[in-house]
Every structure is written in structure tokens, then in C-alpha cells.
TrEMBL record:
It comes from the Bacteria. The keyword tRNA processing does not apply. Residues 348-375 are annotated as: Disordered. This is Heat-inducible transcription repressor HrcA. PANTHER family: HEAT-INDUCIBLE TRANSCRIPTION REPRESSOR HRCA.
Length: 375
């Protein structure tokens, strides 16, 4: 995906207008983003790339208002963009080009040594860098794998009656759960568990790991059922995690320091930020634009969220986006989002054929968000 082919998700109800009106609309949005003040026709007519009179501009702005792209907050004031006006503006600037090579090199430096980055670290580094550059919050959603299968299950003793269950999938996901058992496991117990997992779980699709299936496995363990059932329960919890979209957010402090956003609404949003997963699905193409107070679950008023998707091989793997004020510098932010989604797609696709790490290294690659051991 390149900037020249990037398209905004425009609602079907939007009417496409002629080139002159699009230039006028872009000029209004650009000035409003910079000043926060309603824009008048005289101001627009004096711009170097607008070659018509103030009267013509005024007429075109009236048409744009009638079509729902501009609105007039007060009778005597200039005009400001609506949600749809922002969307058309974003589509217009999306075709203006890519980042210069020196800026791409700077972003690569911010990501760090690519050879040392796991998939989770790639996502975390990209969101941190994007947040620092845009001065906004950044969010990344890692979609639940649709084509992944279980490639290995193992159990490792870590202390008296304490064991870690490891689960590795074909797409490189690694999960672990610490379990406290009633008894220390013998070599016979551990050998049985490993062989039982090989026969019953390896090669099974992640999407098929239902509670019912795992309960059937516990019953099939026979005399080992009481001793080993906590380990299977740990697998059940990990399978639920694997089947849910994962969401990371960075730069939340930028939202609290933004004068355009209500601090109470930001605080409420942060308490329920995991609900964003439903908005960051794979049902859109190109750039997806959402605004606060537009009838969706994105609850920060006067805000915007710009999202693009990244790929892993031939499949959509997740979404990366920026959350900030509605008066966001879209011309600056969109090329950064595009570059990072391209970069993430390249890095995680290159790593797609890399064999999973050795078991003794797994603890170093597991992200820190997993639940604490059972007490």
C-alpha cells in the first residue's frame, strides 16, 4: 500500500464535488486546524492557489454547507468543517505523497535493531515512536489469528508445586500460564501430559479450542485427571486470550494535555479503552476515520481516530492508529501511519518463516501483560 493508493473510508451518502470546491474545502479545513477559528470567504479568496473572487468562494462554501461538508456556528461567522468535511479533506491529502527518505531513516532508528525485535516488540516500538512524533495517543490491535494451529504444548517445573504451561502456535504466538498444583508432578505425570498434548492438541486450530473440547480432554485423562486438570485449565485460559483481539495503547498522557479535549471524557475513555477492539476490526479498506460524538463507541468529544491495517503475509494481522483532537494535522500524521503499517507488515512477514524460539528462551519473549500466577 502506498500513499498514492491510500483511500479514506467515505460513507456512501457523501457527494463527490468538483475540483474547485474540493480545493476550497481543503483550504477551510487546513486553516481551521491551524487556528481553531471559523473561516470566511474573503480569507480563502486571498490564498495563492484559489483563483476566484470572494463572492464565488462564498457561493461554493454555501453549496458545501448544503451538502454537509461545512457548517456555520453563528450567522455572522465563517464556516467550520463537519465530520464529512474532514473525511473528504483527509482523502484529498492522502494522495499527496510519501515521507522523504531521510524521515524514513529517522523512523527506522526509532524502531531499533530490527534483527532483535520480536513481533510484540515491533508493535510496541512502532506505537511508541508514532506517539512521540505525532504527540497523540497511538493504538494497535493485534487480530486474533484465524488460520493458526497449536504447534507445541509443554510444561516446565518452576518451584515447589509450581509449573508453567507453554503454548506455541504456528504463527509464532507464545503464551504461558503459571499453575499451582496440589502435588509435585512425577516424571511419569510430565511424560503423560506431554504425550497427551501431542496426540490431542498439536495441529488443532486455535479457533477450535473450546471449553467443551478441553473438558472432554480432562475426562479422557482418566486417573491423571485430578492431578493434571489445572494445567488443562491454564490451556483453556490461554486459548481464550488467543481468540481475542489484543490491544496496546501508548501516549495516553498526550490526550490529557490536549486543550481541545475534555479531561473527564479522556479519563472515562481510558477506563474502557479495551472496548476499542470492536472498532479496530478488519472490515474496512484503506484509512478508517472515526470522530467522537458521531454515534459510535468512541466517546471522547471533539476527537478523531485515524486507523490503517497492517498485514502478515497474505492476511490482515491488525490495525494501527492515532487518537487525537479533531483539529489534528492530518497531512503530517497520515504519512506516518502509512509508513509504520508498511514497516510492521514487512517486518512481521519477513519473520513469518522463522522457527519458534527454544523453550528455555520463551520466558524472555512473552509480553508482560499475561495474568499473574494463581495463588
Amino acid at each position: 500500500m502506498s500513499a498514492n493508493t491510500l483511500k479514506v473510508n467515505l460513507p456512501e451518502r457523501m457527494v463527490i464535488v468538483d475540483a474547485r470546491k474540493r480545493r476550497i474545502l481543503s483550504a477551510v479545513v487546513d486553516l481551521y486546524i491551524r487556528t481553531g477559528e471559523p473561516v470566511g470567504s474573503k480569507t480563502i479568496s486571498q490564498l495563492p492557489d484559489i483563483h476566484v473572487s470572494a463572492a464565488t468562494v462564498r457561493n461554493d462554501m454555501a453549496v458545501l454547507e448544503e451538502l454537509g461538508y461545512l457548517e456555520q456556528p453563528h450567522t455572522s461567522a465563517g464556516r467550520v468543517p463537519t465530520f464529512n468535511g474532514y473525511r473528504m479533506y483527509i482523502e484529498e491529502i492522502s494522495a499527496e505523497g510519501t515521507l522523504p527518505q531521510e524521515e524514513r531513516d529517522r523512523l527506522d532508528e526509532m524502531l531499533g535493531d530490527e534483527s532483535q525485535l520480536t513481533e510484540d516488540l515491533i508493535l510496541q516500538s512502532a506505537t511508541t515512536a508514532l506517539s512521540q512524533i505525532t504527540k497523540c495517543a497511538t493504538v494497535v490491535s493485534n487480530f486474533a489469528p484465524k488460520y493458526s494451529v497449536i504447534s507445541k504444548v509443554d510444561v516446565i517445573p518452576t518451584g515447589k508445586r509450581m509449573y508453567v504451561v507453554l503454548l506455541i502456535t504456528s504463527d509464532g504466538k507464545i503464551k504461558n500460564r503459571a499453575c499451582r498444583l496440589q502435588f509435585d508432578l512425577t516424571h511419569e505425570h510430565m511424560d503423560f501430559f506431554k504425550h497427551f498434548m501431542e496426540e490431542n492438541l498439536e495441529g488443532v486450530s486455535v479457533s477450535d479450542l473450546s471449553e467443551e473440547k478441553l473438558e472432554q480432554m480432562i475426562t479422557a485423562m482418566g486417573t491423571y485427571m485430578m492431578t493434571l486438570s489445572p494445567l488443562v485449565q491454564g490451556i483453556c485460559e490461554m486459548s481464550k486470550d488467543l481468540q481475542q483481539n489484543e490491544l496496546y495503547m501508548t501516549g495516553e498522557q498526550n490526550l490529557f494535555s490536549c486543550d481541545d479535549l475534555d479531561k473527564a471524557e479522556v479519563a472515562k475513555f481510558m477506563m474502557h479503552k479495551q472496548e476499542l477492539s470492536g472498532l479496530l476490526d478488519d472490515s474496512f479498506q484503506g484509512i478508517k476515520v472515526m470522530f467522537g460524538e458521531e454515534g459510535n463507541d468512541f466517546v471522547i468529544g471533539n476527537s478523531s481516530m485515524i486507523v490503517s491495517k497492517y498485514q502478515k503475509g497474505d492476511h490482515t494481522a491488525g490495525s494501527l492508529g492515532v487518537i487525537g483532537p479533531m483539529r489534528l494535522n492530518y497531512a503530517k500524521v497520515i504519512p506516518y501511519i502509512e509508513y509504520f503499517t508498511e514497516k510492521i507488515s514487512h517486518l512481521i512477514s519477513d519473520d513469518d518463516d522463522t522457527p519458534p524460539p527454544e523453550l528455555e528462551c520463551i520466558g524472555q519473549t512473552e509480553p508482560p501483560k499475561d495474568p499473574k500466577p494463581e495463588q
